[in-house]
Amino acid sequence: MAPPPPATAVGDAMTPLPVPRDSRANIDIMAVTKGFHWPWFAALVLVLIGVAQAAFTLAYQTYWGFGVAGYQAPVFWGLYIVTFVFWIGIGHAGTLISAILFLFRAKWRNAVNRGAEALTVFAVLTAVLFPVLHLGRLWKLYYLLPYPNQRGLWVNFKSPLLWDVFAINTYMLISIVFFYIGLIPDIAMARDRATGGKKIVYTVLALGWQGTGVQWKAHSRAVLHLSGLATPLVLSVHSVVSWDFAMSVVPGWHATIFAPYFVAGAVFGGFAMVINVLIPVRRIFKLERYLTNYHFENMSRFILLTSTICGYAYAMEYFIAWYSGVEPEQTSFWLRLFGPYWFSTWCMITFNVIFPQLLWIKRLRTNLPFLFVLCFFINLGMWFERYVIIITSLSREFITGAWGLYIVSPVELSILVGSFCWFSMWFLLFLKAFPVIAISEVKELIIHEKEPGGAH
Amino acid sequence: MPTLVSIFDLPSDVANSVRKLKARGFDDLTTYSPAPFPEIEDAEDPKPSGVRLWTLIGGLLGVTTGFAFQIWASLEWPIKIGGKAYTAIPPFWIIGFELTILFGGFATLFGLLAVGKLRPRKLDPHYSRRFSAEEFGVVVNCEGRDVAEIEALLREHSAKEVNVVDS
Fold first, then answer.
1. What angle is formed at CA A113 by the lines to CA A108 and CA A117, rounded to 5 degrees?
2. If you measure CA to CA, which chain A residue comes closest to B62?
3. Going by CATH, does the domain composed of B2-48+123-166 fall within 2.40.30.110?
4. Is A199 on the interface with B (CB under 8 A)?
5. Which residues in chain B are closer than 8 Å to A209, comparing Cβ atoms?
6. Terminus-to-terminus CA distance in chain B, angstroms?
7. Is residue A20 assigned to a domain?
8. Which residues in chain B are contacts of A180 at CB distance < 8 A?
9. Do A209 and B101 touch (CB under 8 A)?
10. Residue A355 falls within a domain, yes or no?
11. Closest Cα of chain A to B155: distance in Å?
12. For chain B, what are the domain ranges?
């Protein structure tokens, strides 16, 4: 029997070997989190000012009462609910990219899924603020939840508003879980290269991840199951939001098309926001090698598809209003186009249906400055879509004597601006804390390409 | 007991060497990978991951809790709404569904933590930051008499380094 070889420590055994270079993906993508970037810093200062002014406005509204936000009969769902629906919609692209495209094994998603997931989490964290702001009396927040109380009362489980509480909170929590599970391998990679305080934080968050076969198998299975759970969830969330409207009998809201119409609109707006955010990130942090024109072209295709679905839904709304023969319904839709809010309706149609049709041209799908401007208008159009649905319907209900005109108040505008700043603040902080591209998933593709025969 | 720490560049080589090692009865091994590669995971342990059971139990618990809680609360404070029965099932599907996803999702997370033994802890002594770059590791614990055979087998499958250490 051969004698065992001499015992040596791991360090001794590996010392004579040349120190291997780190993965280029690690270096390039982690570079975003390191160093000082002027555009990033300037943006952070700007958004912090925006958040501060909104916090001041909120304190003012809380002290003086909800009346300062300009709410009066007949429109009691104003800009806060419009913006709530807008942000929930923005959160949909992340889950679509992470979960649905994962189930379809669309590998191109690997480069964009982390950024999109982060956008989802931060969009939902922004959205959940609005029903609270809309309460006016913020300290009554817990009334929304079913909890044991001395009065023996329970919430109304048959109300779409309560369904919304459950749907939105579930979506927020599951999005965070999904986001964190995806981050674990990359946090471990960052832990292996960090020093000082960052290393301690990454060590705790990485949960002892080492990339063993058992860990990867459990991780892949967890991602698969969460994708399976998140796919119906994402479809349900905006459906439930749509039922806040569709379950009522308000003209313009009482339509069975609302659920698929809202979901398509959410994916449409979500993709536009992902493009709007990732184009500057790609440019500022020099990530052209990872976020290529191919990725943006694929996302453009989704935008074209969902824009067309939205266009169909808009057309069907008008057709059904006419075909139903219900006069209040017909009047409501006529006034959308030619009433006091005509501007928002025509913005909605132009930005959401007409402009995106330019994406049939391949050259434009890969022209990033064009895409950036187009997606900006799409986001504007999607915000106007919610404005049209909510405001025009509420201000023109059944009894003409009860009609009113809604005018946006400065308090609402301040909170609206603050919401964009709040969302951007989280994303900017995320950029400096965690890899904006899922490095382990990108490496999966890079390593596959090294195999004889290339990627498969 | 000696331990062999080997380094590979390609997942197919890792999977092939692990399969060979296991076929020869060398079961006490761990692989380290910078990215998910099912061929390696299955070579190391072909059994399906236990996470699936966690998800199933979480989901079932969620749907049961969702319906049971709504039915109980509606009977606890009976009030007619919209002419529906106190325990009208169709509207309860929404919250029942949401809780299925919520409980199932959290159970999946806990399943991952349990099955993957994830918690803040000291890393394995043979773990290297090279395994979170683009290299793979196969660590085999064996008897002293088997070292030469295992080393030959690993090198035969394109291991670019094999270090023998005493653990």
1. 160
2. A170
3. no
4. no
5. 116, 118
6. 6
7. no
8. 109
9. no
10. yes
11. 17
12. 2-48+123-166, 51-115
Percentage of chain B modeled with pLDDT above 90:
77
- Classified as helix, coil or strand, B2 is strand
Instruction: Check CB contact of A220 with chain B, cutoff 8 Å.
Output: yes
Given a cut of 50, whether residue A295 has pLDDT beyond it is yes
* CA-based nearest residue in chain A for residue B44: A213
The ipTM estimated for the assembled molecules is 0.95
User: Does any domain span residue A109?
Assistant: yes
Nearest CA in chain A to B41: A213
Cβ proximity of A435 and A29 under 8 Å = yes
Domain tally, chain A: 1
Asked if the structure places residue A8 within a domain, the reply is: no
What is the mean pLDDT of the segment spanning A103-129? 90
Distance from CA of B19 to the nearest CA of A (A): 13
Residue contact B164–A166, C-beta within 8 A: no
Domain that holds residue A325: 71-144+159-404
